[in-house]
Design brief:
By secondary structure, the protein is α/β, with parallel strands linked by helices. The chain has ten helices and eleven strands. Helix content is 41%, strand content 16%. The structure holds guanine.
């Protein structure tokens, strides 16, 4: 069994990005600038957005954190997005999800300029991804592809089972694993809350990608020997023995599943850090595109 070490690989990617940013600085070019919009005080979202901003500093990007109260109206958020769309200094931005219930998520995602949509959630970018066109690939699926590629995990002709059909992870992952190329060329089954006989399906899988947010859901009895397991789950489970009072737990019963797996991602230290690294990569791409388009 080999651990797919997202922490290590994400650090390598950040180092590669730092080299590119240093070159930009040397040439007197503008460095990439990422903005993140956070509405409300959700603890997990605060942590994620904090890590995204901190990682910008690490690679030499500019970053802006826009914090808005949980009472923000849809119109106020749409106005802020319009401001960010127009701001020539900002290359890309994200609106952290989930949003408070008074705000329509679809309206918000549609309002983001697709050229600045480094999350890849705008329908124009999502459509391009499905059609194999060059675009921003959502950061978590992009990070999983990068991990599979850097560890040279064979995906061609394999049966990939994705558990969970969220717009952020499961759905795009199911599309990407079936695309032509490497990683890809898999036969994909997308499972969800209405799937019957899930164990029958997972026990036939060569690669399993879990993204449902249910701690320790995937058990050893549900997988075959030598399976590749990618665990996207990050649930805060109360734990009085830790200073924070909780521990981050994945969707996979790691202790037992890892005994059967050929490759497996840990939680934490697997997919999570890769998501941030790929968001930075998308922001670098946004900067390069803007420079090519505007000449600065
Ligand atoms: N919430 C959970 N994951 C993500 C993500 O990748 N991007 C945004 N914007 N919100 C999220």
């Amino acid at each position: 069994m080999e651990i797919l070490d997202g922490k290590k690989i994400s650090n390598q990617i950040k180092d590669e990005i730092t080299v590119e940013v240093d070159k930009m600085k040397k040439n007197g070019e503008k460095v990439p600038h990422l903005a993140a919009v956070l509405v409300g005080n959700d603890g997990a979202s605060l942590t994620y957005v904090g890590s995204k901003v901190k990682s910008c500093e690490r690679v030499g990007f500019e970053s802006t954190l826009v914090k808005m109260p949980s009472t923000t109206s849809e119109l106020e958020l749409l106005k802020k997005i319009e401001e960010l769309n127009k701001n020539q200094d900002i290359d890309g931005f994200i609106v952290q999800l989930p949003l408070p219930e008074q705000i329509n998520e679809q309206k918000v995602l549609m309002a983001i300029d697709p050229d600045k949509d480094v999350d890849g959630f705008h329908p124009a970018n999502f459509g391009k991804m499905a059609l194999d066109m060059s675009t921003f690939i959502p950061a978590t699926p992009f990070g999983i592809l990068e991990l599979l590629e850097r560890y040279n995990v064979e995906t061609k002709g394999k049966h990939t089972v994705v558990i969970g059909r969220s717009h952020i992870v499961g759905r795009p992952m199911s599309i990407l694993m079936g695309r032509k190329g490497f990683p890809g060329n898999s036969t994909v089954t997308l499972t969800h809350s209405h799937t019957k006989n899930i164990t029958q399906i997972t026990s036939q899988a060569d690669i399993i990608i879990t993204a449902l947010g249910q701690p320790n859901y995937l058990k050893a009895e549900m997988v075959k020997d030598d399976v590749v397991v990618i665990d996207v789950g990050i649930t805060r489970v109360p734990d009085e023995d830790t200073p924070r009072g909780y521990k981050i737990t994945g969707d996979v019963d790691f202790e037992n599943v890892s005994k059967k797996a050929s490759y497996i991602t840990p939680v934490p230290g697997g997919v999570g850090p890769m998501t941030i690294a790929m968001l930075l990569k998308n922001t670098l791409l946004a900067r390069e595109r803007h420079r090519a388009k505007n000449g600065n």
